[in-house]
Amino acid sequence: MTDTPNHLTIVDHPLVQHKLTIMRDKTTSTAAFRQLLREISQLLAYEVTRGLPMTTKRVETPMQEMDAPTLDGKKLALISILRAGNGLMDGVLELIPSARVGFVGLYRDEETLQPVQYYFKVPEAMEDRLVIAVDPMLATGNSSVAAINLLKEAGATNIIFLCLLASPEGVATMKAAHPDVRIVTASLDEALNEKGYIIPGLGDAGDRMFGTK
Ligand SMILES: O=P(O)(O)OC[C@H]1O[C@H](OP(=O)(O)OP(=O)(O)O)[C@H](O)[C@@H]1O
Ligand SMILES: O=c1cc[nH]c(=O)[nH]1
Ligand SMILES: [Mg+2]
């Protein structure tokens, strides 16, 4: 795992990188792409949740009683930035089945590269929860900045943004707008092209995941 000073964590675990390479390959099928995203999301979740607060509870093993570690505090909120966010969310939710779940519906206008909102529903008491917002792609950063604006308006103060690929431009935009939000990603790619796509990237995550286009 590489931690950079600007709150960007790149998960360079061999399994993550191997699976990501297969996802980048344009000949990878929709079914394989979806399955790999699910698998990677669980490995990324392992890193994202490393700092979760802990307490202990008394349990009786078949041998004796002990104070055993257990998660503390209110259940975390997992927020999917629709629609591609669902591909990351499914795997994380398998690992943390008690998480509360919310959705921010946004799509990127292909001309302006500005996000258009169409849905918003999040759990109550956002101010008391660790909020993990998930979207595979951090490209211009406009969608994630908008989503996090909405989450903060809903009360969230402790937010981590989890993505699969990030661009340098997206990281800089997020850092400027939300310096308090840690970004966790599998890769910091090279650049954006003139249409706002991540290079080398993996193409359109939503389309590859759902077989649209
Ligand atoms: O950083 P940005 O430049 O804003 O781009 C990233 C956004 O673009 C993609 O979503 P898209 O708009 O394609 O919607 P979809 O998830 O419904 O496919 C992606 O899932 C992000 O939400
Ligand atoms: O490269 C990109 C940029 C935005 N959205 C995607 O799905 N891919
Ligand atoms: Mg898309």
UniProtKB/TrEMBL annotation:
GN (gene name): upp
Enzyme Commission number: 2.4.2.9
Biological function: Catalyzes the conversion of uracil and 5-phospho-alpha-D-ribose 1-diphosphate (PRPP) to UMP and diphosphate.
Protein name, entry field: Uracil phosphoribosyltransferase
Protein source organism: Sulfitobacter profundi
GO molecular function, one term: uracil phosphoribosyltransferase activity
Binding site for 5-phospho-alpha-D-ribose 1-diphosphate: 83, 108, 135-143, 204
Catalytic reaction list: UMP + diphosphate = 5-phospho-alpha-D-ribose 1-diphosphate + uracil
InterPro entries: PRTase-like (IPR029057), PRTase_dom (IPR000836), Upp_B (IPR034332), UPRT (IPR005765), UPRTase/APRTase (IPR050054)
UniProt pathway: Pyrimidine metabolism; UMP biosynthesis via salvage pathway; UMP from uracil: step 1/1
Free-text activity regulation comment from the record: Allosterically activated by GTP.
Manner of cofactor binding, per the entry note: Binds 1 Mg(2+) ion per subunit. The magnesium is bound as Mg-PRPP.
